[in-house]
Design a protein that fits this description.
By secondary structure, the chain is an alpha+beta fold. The chain has 21 helices and 23 strands. The strands form 4 sheets. The protein has a 6-stranded mixed sheet, sandwiched between helices. Strands 13-14-21-16-18-17 form a 6-stranded mixed β-barrel. A 4-stranded antiparallel sheet has the order 2-1-4-5, with helices on one face. It is rod-shaped. Helix 10 packs antiparallel against helix 17 (about 505-550), helix 10 (about 260-300) packs across helix 19 (about 565-600) and helix 17 (about 505-550) packs parallel to helix 20.
Amino acid sequence: MLELEHISKIYHMGDNVLYALNNVCVRVEPGDFVAIMGPSGSGKSTLMNILGLLDNPSSGLYRIDGQDVSKLNENYLAILRRNKLGFIFQQFNLLPRLTALENVALPHFYSAQGEDSSIGRNLLARVGLANRMDHKPNELSGGQQQRVAIARALINAPSVIFADEPTGNLDSKSAAEIMALLEDLNNQGITIVMVTHEESIGARAKRRIRMRDGKVVADDRLKPLNSGVGIPPRESLSSRGIFAMLFGFLKQAVLTLSSNRIRTGLSTLGILIGVAAVIVMMAIGSGARRQIQEQLASMGSNLLILRPGATRLAGVVQESSATRLTLDDASSLQEKISSIYAVSPTVSGRAQITFGNKNWNTQITGTTPTYTSMRAAKPARGRFFSQTENQSRAMLAVIGLTVARELFGEANPLGENIKINKLNFQVIGVLPEKGAQGPRDQDDIIIVPVQTAMRRLFGKDYVDSIEIQIRSGADLNQASDEILQYMSGRRRIPLAQAQEPFRIFNMAELQSAISSTSQTMSTLLAGIAAISLLVGGIGIMNIMLVSVTERTREIGLRKAVGARPFDILVQFIIESIVLTLVGGLMGILVGWLLTLLVARTAGWTTVIDPLAIAMAFFFSVSIGMIFGIYPARRASRLNPIEALRHE
């Protein structure tokens, strides 16, 4: 069954070579009860660890059921430990956060059939702990803890049980009970390999092997080997389905993390802050972008602004009356160029406004009724003037919110008369709020009929510009070229005198530039916030590295009872993901609350984008996975026996 041929285990200590085992040849038959004895440092524990696949020999051949174990990979060795071998440790090696039943079921977790609490309950009842199943190790005596360890070793119905000083930490009564249990198990056909230094304990075995200085010095048969003892039927050397295993790992992760609540809370805090910061910053950025878009919409869509340029006279570039724009130009453009949807000739200037004992200096714009649709300027209160009122040069005014506030306070301005440059104008409407655009307050304005502004306020027979709205779907650049070409031909400006006689400002280009800048700022804000997510991920990695160090013995135990390196890797990665998952969910909640608080206290426009929430959540989980890989790989590569010996 178990065959060792010329096995040696060598440790190099500087220039010295230490033989823990030296050319050992041992064969263990099915159903035997072997006691390995010897003084400290004789190699008895090393021999048992090699037999139990916890350690590797430096040389020699080891076969299990005729199979050379040196040709098996780590995963298959783990499956062999899980399905064929059971371990009873001198230090019990029970996980303190698990109950007795959960400790017993630990090897079952990695088996093909998965967790089955009924088997664990039956085994605990079998070792006399039916009433202590829900107690944790610190609530059990030493003998009871060793009984739990025996039940754990039996959970997968092994062919062989390895017991390392099973009575070493027990009183005589408990030791006798444990030995009686081992003898009973052996009588049922289970092979027992036990390490002990007590002669009375070793005498109860069927076979006694004595060791000294890494060599077998005696091998005595104390009792005859039972004839006809067979090996219990084995289950397939396979593992559970992936989904059942992942669910089990998730349960283990929640249990592990909940047992260290303070550290878990501090670990998730970094992710929480990062996710919340990303959500708040992106909400602020999206809100600012929406506000800018609303302001851009108020500037007009598909809008071109035609202004006079300059001509060259006698080699000197100067303004000319030939390039001045008129009301007739506006009418002619709309009539001749098919891509033009609407035109609005405008004049502008500043003027002193008075009402009662209050006065205010503001921007005066003279325009036509088409201004309302082109600039999204439909009055919030009152009305706009009509084309008839424009042609009759009516003394009417539509005022912005800033002017209304400065002159009228909370009073209703509609129907009141104000003086503009000492001329009486009746207020017929109040423009919608548009806010500031750079240093300019868009609400600090008064709109009057363009012919009233030209003839009665500014004394002009020309306009300063013509605002042109291009039909939806038309090419703005092509329309711009057509307008310039038409105006040059209309004024018959000689080519020799042409020097940009007319200029066109494309508002779409300005809007695109502002939108691009807004997008850049939003991205910058999100990037700054994402740094906190990165810092949180580094914190997760640090905590998981500490966890690997603290749980080294646990990792060794899990490998001893059948966990593959892949199982350890997945377990620690899932723990990292659970940390960031909890932090991400809490961060979403905190980010949402902070966004509402910012909007309410600072008065900023904020927009919580579901996509931003999804991205923050996705990256938080991804960070948990990425930063959990290194600690998980480190844990999965630990040698079982070195991990079990870790202090």
